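Following up on my earlier thread - several people asked me to post the actual chain instead of describing it. Fair enough. Here it is, all 215 residues.
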Amino acid sequence: MPLTTEEPQIHESAQGPRVTPAASRTAQTPRPVPGPRPVAVPRPGRPGPVRPAPPAQRVPQQATPGTPSVTPAAPAAPTAPSVSAAVPQIQLIPASAEGALDAAEEAVDLLLDTGRAPGDILVLTSGDPHPWAAHELSFGESAYWAQQDARDDVFYADAAHVQRAAARPVVVFAANGGPADAIVAALPVALTRAGALLVVCGDPERINSVLGASV
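Reply from S.P.:
Thanks for posting it. Predicted structure:
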């Protein structure tokens, strides 16, 4: 069923499956990736010497467990999330392949700023890897995947490895390029990894054609 667009907001709901697209956006010039954390904090179980902190990870302004996950600033009170829902809510953020990663970063910022714990969020990229993932993989796959199990921060992974990605309450999928058939294969699996909310940033026509058959 085709999706329609509305004001750019990401709501979690205990109701059944529905696709709630956000407002259409014009692809913007990609913004620079945020710099590294001011202090490098070794992660639990990390072998080897202390290394520079990875890029683009953020600390939420207010992380209050149990608060609603993602809502842009609005006067209305947000609805409490339901991680136990059988099928997660789907939110579509229209974006070009070049702007999809930026759109995903903005979605993650909203999640963190409104109280969602960093360990609740998984970000998948279909094209170029997120700079954080590329940085962490340079120290070896074992240490990289151990951070997924630690669940103490946002975890970024290639959509090609979605089968290995562990489920989290919120999954943000950036359709930022890559083979078309890879996106078609990865999106339905990403939906199964999302406990409460799947946010997809990409071409609306393509996303509708894939997820329309999945929900």
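The two ends are 9 Å apart (CA to CA). That should answer part of your original question.
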